[in-house]
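Example 9 (inverse folding). The structure is encoded as follows.
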């Protein structure tokens, strides 16, 4: 089968600097990366968008390697109106070539959740960016259905979803539910695998998502169905933070992720069989 374009998510190499990640991704054959450009409200850590020298180094690394910045990480929504603080980060992300920003939503009040999401979409649209809701069981948008309902209620052309194989399964979702989402509203797909046991609470789910995933084919997630529910040759972002891989250098780890992912994808059914699987997932 023709392998989809692969992107390396920043969370896969959490200890690497942005430039280290870019060069590691390039050496491993990834076409693009994601970077954490924006801070969280109240976060004391200096985000990339607040480091002019860091931005220059990232720009140079992208140009030198030909690697693209596919998405610029998340805007965390849990208090201040997004446009009151995130415009500089959106500007930097867009200037580096990002196409998409992630909305990670913790706002509990339903009307403010919608208002803030629409505000972010409007702000991002000024920079030519799409906004993809990342649903997760430990957020205020826990399921793919809830994310799509928010996108529909917002009714802005740059509003969509990122579908993460781990979050889909851990939230009780299925490939059939994913297949019900219009393809044009699925902006990103994140691939990983996971252990059999589901964490029992929100903090455990968050910790698993950020530190304890597995490479594709090394766990139990129904990834064949997941990939089959995506549009043909849909780009895949590898988001595989793995505590077992912590001692491995960024370059070696990027090579490992790429090799294992390509091997997994090479074992998938031919495209015509995948299409049959996808059709069988339709209601």
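The amino acid assigned to each position is listed next.
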């Amino acid at each position: 089968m023709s392998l989809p374009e692969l992107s390396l998510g920043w969370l896969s190499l959490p200890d690497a600097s942005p430039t280290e990640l870019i060069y590691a991704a390039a050496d491993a054959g990834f076409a693009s990366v994601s970077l954490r450009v924006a801070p969280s409200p109240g976060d004391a850590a200096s985000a990339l968008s607040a480091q002019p020298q860091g931005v220059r180094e990232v720009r140079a690394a992208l140009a030198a390697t030909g690697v693209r910045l596919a998405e610029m990480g998340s805007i965390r929504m849990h208090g201040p109106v997004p446009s009151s603080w995130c415009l500089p980060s959106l500007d930097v992300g867009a200037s580096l070539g990002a196409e998409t920003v992630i909305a990670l939503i913790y706002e509990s009040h339903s009307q403010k959740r919608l208002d803030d999401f629409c505000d972010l979409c409007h702000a991002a649209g000024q920079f030519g960016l799409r906004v993809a809701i990342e649903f997760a069981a430990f957020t205020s948008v826990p399921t793919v259905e809830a994310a799509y309902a928010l996108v529909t209620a917002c009714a802005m052309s740059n509003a969509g979803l990122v579908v993460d194989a781990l979050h889909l399964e851990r939230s009780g979702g299925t490939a059939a539910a994913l297949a019900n989402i219009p393809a044009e509203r699925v902006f990103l797909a994140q691939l990983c695998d996971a252990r059999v046991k589901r964490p029992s609470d929100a903090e455990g789910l968050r910790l698993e998502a950020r530190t304890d995933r597995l490479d594709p084919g090394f766990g139990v997630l129904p990834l064949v169905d997941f990939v089959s529910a995506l549009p043909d040759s849909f780009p895949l972002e590898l988001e595989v933070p793995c505590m077992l891989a912590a001692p491995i250098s960024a370059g070696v780890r990027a090579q490992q992720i790429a090799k294992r992912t390509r091997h997994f994808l090479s074992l998938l059914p031919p495209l015509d069989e995948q299409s049959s699987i996808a059709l069988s997932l339709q209601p």
